[in-house]
Design brief:
The chain contains three helices and four strands. By secondary structure, the protein is an alpha+beta fold. The protein has a four-stranded antiparallel sheet.
């Protein structure tokens, strides 16, 4: 089983907390960290800049699609950033992730 971090940008603290709570309570992720960020991005042909809150969700690779589907269904953005990358780490911590998302 591969472990991943899912990176998700949100419109602010309220949306970030809602998404994080849904992901954890449904057993799709073990933990979510939230950080305020300032983003500069292209949207509909124009450069934009905005405050956002980014989520770093720890889970397993086989949970990515259910995470993506849930986030897309409750997110306020037309096209939210939902990307992942593989992680390695302390075997006991990774086991905690595995058991947290296996229920």
């Amino acid at each position: 089983m591969e472990f991943i971090i899912v990176y998700i940008t949100t419109s602010g603290t309220v949306e970030a907390r809602n998404i994080a709570s849904e992901l954890v309570s449904r057993g799709l992720v073990a933990c979510v960290n939230m950080y305020p960020i300032r983003s500069v991005f292209m949207w509909e042909g124009e450069a934009n800049e905005d405050d956002e809150v980014v989520l770093f969700a720890k889970t397993t690779k086989n949970k990515f699609e259910p995470v993506r589907e849930l986030v897309r269904s409750i997110h306020s953005y037309e096209l939210p950033a939902i990307v992942s990358w593989d992680i390695e780490g302390d075997s006991e911590f990774l086991e905690w992730i595995r058991t947290s998302v296996s229920h």
